Amino acid sequence: MSTTNMATSSNYWEDLRKQARQLENELDLKLVSFSKLCTSYSSSINRDQRTRDSRSDSGSSQDNMLVAMTTELEQLLANLTAVNDKMAEYTNSPGISSHNAALMHTLQRHRDILQDYTHEFHKTKNNFFSLREREDLLGSVHRDIESYKSSSGVNNRKTELFLKEHEHLRRTVTLYSSVRHMENHQTDSDLHETLTYKVL
Questions:
Q1: Predicted TM-score of the model (pTM)
Q2: Integer Cα distance of 83 and 20 in angstroms
Q3: pLDDT, mean over the chain
Q4: Which of 52, 136, 166, 178 could be cross-linked to 142 through a Cys-Cys bond (beta carbons 3.0 to 4.6 Å apart)?
Q5: Which residue windows are coiled coil (predicted)?
């Protein structure tokens, strides 16, 4: 391999390492932020049970932020994977064998970092989506219960109004019956007086 080719080759390797380190640093910062956001999401749900009724605007904006961060982290991991693949290709290039042990060690270190970040990302993401799914399920059940209670309340109110109306009608009928009874009694009394008067 000529000196020019070695210099170019060495620059290519260093460029790949630089890209890998930049992506790793960015991933590290974003994974910390992602983890904190997931933790705050979990805490806000535990603190505020009203989110089960319906997600608040802050809850849905937090959801949107988490989904956006998930997409961004997936892209960064894909980019880092691509850089690692290019580094692996480079170590297998002809003429690189003299430096291969050191390069392989460096490549393995970058692969381990990628594996750790990928594992951490998937663990945090799965925890978040499990929590959100659980909250959606509990929220749905809670809304169904509240809906049942309120509809039962409406039915109870209707029943209560019906019973009041029924009681009012019953009293009216009783009053009417009493009046009719008194009229009949008066009529009977008048008839009796008339008959008595006629007899006399």
A1: 0.62
A2: 6
A3: 78
A4: 52
A5: 66-93
Q: Is residue 99 part of a domain?
A: yes
Q: What CATH number should be reported for the domain holding residue 130?
A: 1.20.1050
Q: What is the pLDDT of residues 154-192, one digit of tens each?
A: 567 777 777 788 787 778 877 776 676 676 656 655 655
Give pLDDT, residue 185. 56
User: Could you give the angle at the alpha carbon of 153 between the alpha carbons of 148 and 154, nearest 5°?
Assistant: 100
Number of independent structural domains in the chain: 1
pLDDT tens digits for range 2-52: 444 555 777 899 999 999 999 999 999 999 999 998 888 766 665 555 544
The verdict on residue 26 lying in a domain is: yes
